[in-house]
Amino acid sequence: MGHPVYIIPKLGNNSRDIPTSAKEVREVIEENNLNNIIIVAHSRGGLISKYLLLHENPDKRVNGVIAIATPWHGSSMAKFFPHSAVRELSPESKIIHDIENHSEVNNKIVSIIPSFDNHVWHPKGSFLEGAMQNINAEVAGHHLVLNDKKVWNLVVEWIEKITLS
User: Which of 26, 60, 61, 142 is least buried, going by the fewest C-beta atoms within 10 A?
Assistant: First the structure.
């Protein structure tokens, strides 16, 4: 069984703030009249997806999110970068607190967690309390997790599970 895949070119190098990025994803959903959506996202994309579930999904077109190496609680590494899009990922940022403190959509999210993440510097890592599932992947590296065949098999497996639920 195949599923159509949509990429969001408007996100570019992902340097806009999370609310603006979520609105851009929502625009693609509306422009293409998409329904029963499962978003597969990496890192900051998981935060954008959860924000979308919370604030840009009134008609429930997005059914679920599969997030890979997402800094749900922020990353202390963010304080070392001057760019506002990275600073937004600080554990102290307003947007991280908003996303972290609203757990009502966590049960629509599968979080895939690398065994070691060189970018997500937080004691909880990519663990999401109340997630549909937290899955520990036996691969080290924030970006290397994207090249792991077992991780992509998990993504496909969860797409099917969410689609059938």
Answer: 60
Q: For residues 78 and 45, what is the distance between their CA atoms, to the nearest angstrom?
A: 16
Domains in the chain: how many in total? 1
Measured at the CA of 147, the angle between CA 141 and CA 150, to 5 degrees, comes to: 100
- Please give the model's pTM, rounded to 2 decimal places: 0.94
CATH number of the domain enclosing 102: 3.40.50.1820
pLDDT tens sequence across 46-86: 999 999 999 999 999 999 999 999 999 999 888 877 777 77
Q: 26 is in which domain, residue-wise?
A: 9-164
Residue with tokens 């008609």: 59
Phi, psi of 136, deg, nearest 5:
-85, 120
Distance of CA 63 to the CA centre of its chain: 13
Give buried/exposed letters for 5-29 (b at 16+ CB in 10 A, else e): eeebeebeeeebebbebbbbbbebb
In a domain, 3, yes or no: no
Residue type, 67: A
